[in-house]
Write a structure and sequence with these properties.
The complex is a heterodimer of chains A (154) and B (384). In chain A, strand 1 and strand 2 form a beta hairpin. Chain A is built from one helix and eight strands. Chain A is mainly beta. Chain A has one domain. Chain B is globular, with a radius of gyration of 19 Å. Chain B is built from 16 helices and eleven strands. A nine-stranded mixed beta sheet of chain B has the order 3-2-4-7-1-8-11-10-9. Chain B starts with a strand and ends with a strand. Helix content of chain B is 38%, strand content 18%. The chains are: A mainly beta (154), B alpha/beta (384). The interface between A and B is large, with 45 and 43 residues.
């Protein structure tokens, strides 16, 4: 490294700009979140070509690039495919205090996974392959946290 | 088919957690100057420049403008690329495309990052879809942890297998004067380091670094004229598949499987373990250094733990992986992939110094980004 610091003290300048963003959810997810908020239901959509069922739903099939207008209501249950137990705090990133668990749930009736928090179970008791169900939030606002978490089925 | 392209010069900074002795632009000039020295060239001989980093790590929007003086880009064609973790290997692809298309003879690719200037985890989390997955699957560590958690269950891989990879890369870095983390560690040290996100522990994961790298690519004629032993580009392949994290096939790594298969086909590689003499792989966590070996066709599905345990990928093994210490030792993110390209080129050119592997004829390079993108670049001493 440079030796100029022997004679000069380095100066670090703190930035002040913090840019606020807001995101347009779009036609497909507005419908999805609306059904979650108003009816406490989780829906998926199906590709007319390859028949894959996607949750979260999206406008175009990622494989066929076909519009997906065929909606399917899911039962809200599924299998935890994989998970991690987060132990390190990242206050700027994580919405929860560690330790907490998140993972990927393959919902019954869908072909893709849904990422979410796993609660109602001690972190060291969580296992890949366990059956889980969605817990809907009481106060729903039309966003991802309208599903409060997934918990093991007794 | 493009024209033949060779790498003729590589330069990198000394990397560190915080380079308070240099601004971002100064880091860039350090790498640029060293690459020109390595190639024994002057800036006048460079026809075009591409720069790469991730805007949100330093909050500088137009680095192609902001870094003009450090880049030496005044009145030259220059633009920026930014593809997440793959930024550096995208620069490698850009070098190949620029020199291979016939429009430019000598081009300089520059990757850099000053990760100390912001919150790396928060910045990385912005790669996730903000209205879906950003909260529930945030950060760089958790997704990689979930991936290995699934691989362990599917194939009986262990945390110790990952620790062997961490030990290999970290100890290799002791022979690399440019590496950020320089620490001798044992499997026990890795296993005893704090759990960050099960099953990934502190010594399993890459650091965030300040640093830069520059690599000079040239057309066949120029490369032959300017360099005694260029590292020729034999293949450069890119594959993306992400829409949502939940869509991914987590037991394997389809983008890496497809990209490497295509690159091997182009370069005529039938048995990668035998035919490559060295590999510089983008392994951001030691767990990937186990699981992704399946995806590079080094073994059958689930065979990677055995390869790792047998020492096949150690510095004195059949295929030395990451003699430089890799990403686990050094990670200035926008430069990280380009360092893989530069290190592999140096191995072929015989300029890798204390971590030189003897008699390198063919080298494999990978890049990883987003979730879950893969770049594969193959370099060789012989003309392709």
């Amino acid at each position: 490294m440079a030796d100029w610091k022997d004679e000069v003290e380095e100066i670090v300048f703190d930035g002040k700009i913090c840019v606020p963003y807001s995101w347009t959810v779009g036609s497909t997810l507005s419908k999805w979140y609306g059904m979650m908020r108003d009816n406490a239901e989780i829906w998926a959509n199906r590709c007319p070509s390859c028949e894959m069922v996607f949750v979260p739903p999206r406008k175009k099939c990622i494989y066929c690039y076909k519009d997906m207008n065929d909606w399917v209501k899911l039962a809200g249950t599924g299998v935890l495919e994989t998970y991690t137990v987060v132990q390190h705090p990242e206050p700027g990133v994580y919405p929860k205090e560690p330790p907490f668990v998140y993972g990927i749930v393959k919902m019954d009736g869908a072909d893709t996974g849904l990422v979410h928090f796993i609660e109602g179970v001690e972190p060291d008791k969580v296992k890949s392959g366990m059956r889980v169900e969605a817990v809907m939030s009481k106060e729903r606002e039309g966003n991802f946290m309208d599903i409060e978490c997934f918990r093991p089925i007794e | 088919m493009g024209n033949r392209v060779g790498i003729i010069g590589v330069g990198q900074t000394h990397h560190a957690a915080k380079r308070l002795d240099a601004s971002g632009v100064e880091l860039i000039s350090e790498a640029v100057t060293r690459s020109l020295d390595d190639a024994e060239m002057t800036l006048d001989q460079i026809d075009a420049i591409v720069i790469g980093n991730m805007d949100h790590f330093e909050n500088i929007n137009y680095v192609d403008m902001w870094a003009t003086d450090g880049l030496g880009a005044c009145m030259k064609p220059v633009f920026k690329v930014s593809t997440g973790g793959t930024t550096g290997t995208t620069l490698g692809a850009c070098g190949y495309y620029h020199a291979g298309c016939g429009l430019f003879d000598t081009v300089m690719m520059v990757g850099w990052e000053k990760n100390s200037e912001s919150d790396t985890q928060a910045a990385i989390a912005t790669c996730a879809n903000p209205v879906l997955e950003r909260d529930a699957f945030a950060g760089a560590i958790g997704p990689l942890a979930s991936e290995y958690s699934m691989y362990m269950k599917a194939y009986g891989a262990t945390q110790e297998d990952a620790a062997i990879v961490a030990v290999r890369d970290r100890n290799n870095a002791l022979n690399n004067q440019y590496a950020h983390n320089q620490m001798k560690v044992t499997v026990e040290d890795v296993m005893n380091s704090p759990m960050l996100s099960f099953p990934i522990k502190f010594l399993d994961i890459c650091p965030r670094s300040d640093g830069a790298c520059a690599v000079i690519f040239a057309s066949e004629e120029k490369a032959k004229a300017l360099c005694p032993r260029p590292a020729w580009v034999h293949a450069s392949v890119v594959r993306h598949d992400y829409t949502h994290f939940g869509d991914l096939e987590w037991k394997g790594m389809p983008t890496l499987e497809r990209a490497s298969k295509e690159a091997y086909k182009i370069a005529g590689i039938a048995d990668p373990l035998k035919e490559f003499d060295v590999a510089e792989l983008y392994i951001p966590a030691s767990t990937c250094g186990v699981k992704w070996m399946d995806s590079l066709w080094f073994c059958d599905k689930g065979g990677a733990p055995e390869l790792v345990r047998k020492g096949t990928l150690e510095i004195d093994g059949q295929l030395p992986v990451n003699p430089s210490g890799g990403v686990i030792a050094t990670n200035p993110i926008g430069a990280t992939g380009l360092i893989r390209v530069g290190e592999a080129a140096w191995q072929i050119m015989g300029r890798a110094g204390d971590h030189q592997v003897p008699d390198v004829e063919k080298a494999l390079v990978t890049g990883f980004g987003g979730c879950s993108w893969s770049d594969v670049i193959i370099l060789g001493a012989e003309l392709p």
